[in-house]
Write a structure and sequence with these properties.
With 209 residues, the chain is mainly alpha-helical. The chain is 66% helix and 6% strand. It has a domain of 97 residues. The protein has eleven helices and two strands. Strand 1 and strand 2 form a beta hairpin. The N terminus is likely disordered.
Length: 209
């Protein structure tokens, strides 16, 4: 029986692999804009923190780590075009930063540019061999019916190591749930095989979940 694909929250992938690469940095205490930024962060006021960092970067120049922080804040805010701008800009000088590349890919997905997002996550998956990046790549490939590519990514994902804590939180209407990441990958693999009229193979993946 064909199953319904669940659309997972975009920030899950971002939160998993970005935690060690793109971080909110400690700011110099003497700058007035950074004082405002620190105060805003301490009370959870993202809008004011974003404004303060924009002023700071306009004053000090954009080639510094606070541009990474600003991109992250825009991502958290759901301002994907702005996040994309800063992530893409910083990748010019930091092309090997996987956190920035991931933000760029997530923004492209949110801005309805799946082909461009696929290109980004293909690069990320080659670099990181992350099961989370494999899942996101499969989700994008399946979304535009690049089914053979989706199955190939799934085959590569099966060779990866999984831990019990590798989970995905998803929203389905007003309900929020959690499932194992590997089960989510099996689900998409099954859907892609089903659509390729390989129903017997698809069934085996659905039964693995």
């Amino acid at each position: 029986m064909k199953k319904i694909i669940i659309s997972f929250l975009a920030l899950l992938v971002f939160g998993y692999s970005n935690a060690q690469s793109t971080k909110i940095v400690t700011a110099p205490k003497g700058n007035a804009h950074i004082k405002v930024f620190n105060q805003a962060v301490s009370v959870g006021d993202i809008n004011t923190a974003v404004i303060a960092l924009n002023y700071y970067l306009a004053e000090q120049g954009t080639n510094n780590a606070y541009a990474d922080t600003l991109a992250m804040l825009y991502m958290q805010q759901g301002s994907f075009a702005q996040c994309y701008y800063w992530a893409d800009k910083r990748l010019i000088t930091k092309p090997d930063d996987n956190g920035l590349l991931e933000m760029k890919g997530m923004c492209l997905d949110k801005m309805q540019q799946p082909k461009e997002a696929i290109a980004v996550f293909e690069k990320l998956f080659v670099r990181t061999k992350s099961p989370y990046h494999a899942y996101k790549l499969m989700e994008l490939q399946y979304g535009i019916k690049r089914l053979a590519e989706c199955v190939a990514t799934g085959n590569a994902a099966e060779r990866l190591q999984y831990k019990p804590e590798y989970t995905m939180t998803y929203s389905l209407g007003e309900q929020v749930g959690r499932t194992y990441l590997q089960a989510s990958i099996f689900n998409i693999q099954g859907l892609a095989l089903y659509d390729l009229d390989k129903k017997a193979e698809a069934k085996t993946y659905f039964q693995k979940q």
